[in-house]
Write a structure and sequence with these properties.
The protein is an alpha/beta fold and 401 residues long. It contains ten helices and 15 strands. It has two domains: 161 residues, Rossmann fold (3-Layer(aba) Sandwich), CATH 3.40.50; 168 residues, 3-Layer(aba) Sandwich (Rossmann fold). The termini are far apart. It is found in: Golgi apparatus membrane; Golgi apparatus, Golgi stack membrane.
Length: 401
């Protein structure tokens, strides 16, 4: 045994450099292969941003003009394993100025004017059996870049359009929007019952892992205000029992609070979600954590408090205290209701999609979806994020006391 071991040890020692180089090369190949599917290698925010997505596209000279009165959108995938979105999209399309219809009947693929795929339900083994050259395939996603899993280069040259909350998408689909009524008679609205709001702040947080590290801000706010956190990340185990339009709590209970911490879980570009929009519909002042490039410019003016609009958190806390204790100042955050109407919807962009299908458009294809996603102020999801999920959950449940 000793001679055998000595023999192979001599061989290894003689060629150890070659073995080591070979092992490094093979490990690198395996790592990059796995990264194609699982995104092992962390990615970070870029320093240069584009207002359009042309640099990720291959655009052709051919122009498409569909000679039809009504356009048909085919839903090829589910939306998080459910076909619920077909009904919601149909309702949204009924409000559009142009005529469009939606279907999930795959037998109508040849007559469809566009095919919609939800990013979270993609399956390479379940793609349409053929392509119609004038029929754009659209990738729909509302997830922040920090939650986009897998290397999207595997989907290069498959999708023609994108549809998301990102302003540089082919079709802009924010989580909400507002209608300007200033050109008509100002709307009279009932005053918010300031004196009935006996509680300070509430938050709904069910995803504990986040790049924004919201628990740190909540911890500081808890030193000055009563903060009730609902959802899976609640230390007090406060549950979301009222599931209607993302409200989580019964509207009567919400009206007892003065502020909602509408903190996003990441500082992704243009990422403003239903946390903000539903706050406006709940008649509660949203306190947000929007950094540069995050506010997409499509939010209601003078309707929120952004902690990053202040020089530091102490200054922000002092201002919130002033609003909290001053009824006139508090009421001023609802003046927007005289001129604007807020709408919270995950399907806000479907009239834009319908309009686009009624207009001439150039043929195009996304050649580099991975870079399109990484063109952001936040990093893309990787497997190492899973390690920090448990840490963040612990901190959420123990730090904001």
């Amino acid at each position: 045994m000793t001679k055998w071991f000595q023999h192979y040890c001599n061989i290894f020692c003689r060629y150890k450099t070659y073995y080591l180089v070979f092992a490094i090369i093979m490990s690198t190949i395996i790592l990059f292969y796995l990264d194609k599917s699982y995104t092992l290698i962390p990615s970070f925010a870029t320093s240069q941003f584009y207002d359009t997505d042309d640099q990720y596209l291959e655009i052709y000279d051919d122009t498409v003009l569909l000679n039809k009165t009504k356009r048909l959108v085919l839903l090829w995938t589910t939306f998080f394993k459910s076909m619920y979105w077909e009904r919601e999209i149909r309702k949204s399309l009924m409000t559009c100025s142009e005529q469009c219809e939606v279907t999930s009947d795959r037998k109508r693929q040849r007559e469809a004017d566009a095919i919609l795929f939800h990013h979270g339900d993609l399956n390479k083994k379940d793609l349409p059996p053929f392509r119609v050259i004038k029929q754009p395939w659209i990738l729909f996603t509302l997830e922040p870049t920090t939650l986009i899993q897998g290397n999207m280069n595997w989907w290069g040259r498959i999708f023609n359009w994108t549809m998301s909350y990102r302003t540089y998408s082919t079709i802009f689909n924010p989580y909400g929007y507002y209608v300007n009524n200033s050109n008509v008679k100002p709307v009279e609205y009932s005053k918010i019952a300031y004196k009935n709001r006996t509680k300070d702040m509430m938050a709904v947080i069910s995803r504990c892992h986040d790049d924004a590290r919201r628990y740190k801000i909540i911890h500081e706010l808890s030193k000055h205000f009563q903060v009730d956190v609902y959802g899976q990340c609640s230390r007090k185990k406060l549950k979301c029992d009222y599931h209607d339009k993302f409200y989580c709590l019964d509207p009567k209970e919400i009206k007892r609070y003065k502020f909602r911490l509408a903190f996003e879980n990441g500082y992704c570009r243009d990422y403003v979600t239903e946390k903000y929009w539903s706050s406006l519909l709940q008649d509660i002042i949203p306190i947000v954590n929007w950094k540069e490039h995050q506010n997409n410019g499509h939010v209601v003016p003078n309707s929120y408090i952004n902690i990053y609009d202040f020089t530091n958190l102490s200054t922000a806390i002092q201002y919130i205290k002033n609003v909290n204790n001053n009824e006139s100042l508090y009421d001023s955050f609802f003046e927007w209701k005289r001129s604007y109407k807020a709408v919270s919807s995950m399907y806000s962009g479907f009239c834009r999609l319908c309009d686009r299908l009624h207009q001439p458009f150039h043929l195009q294809v996304y050649k580099d979806l991975e870079k399109w996603f990484k063109d952001d102020t936040c990093g893309k999801y990787n497997l190492f994020d899973g390690v920090f999920r448990h840490i963040d959950r612990y901190l959420f449940n123990n730090l904001h006391r």
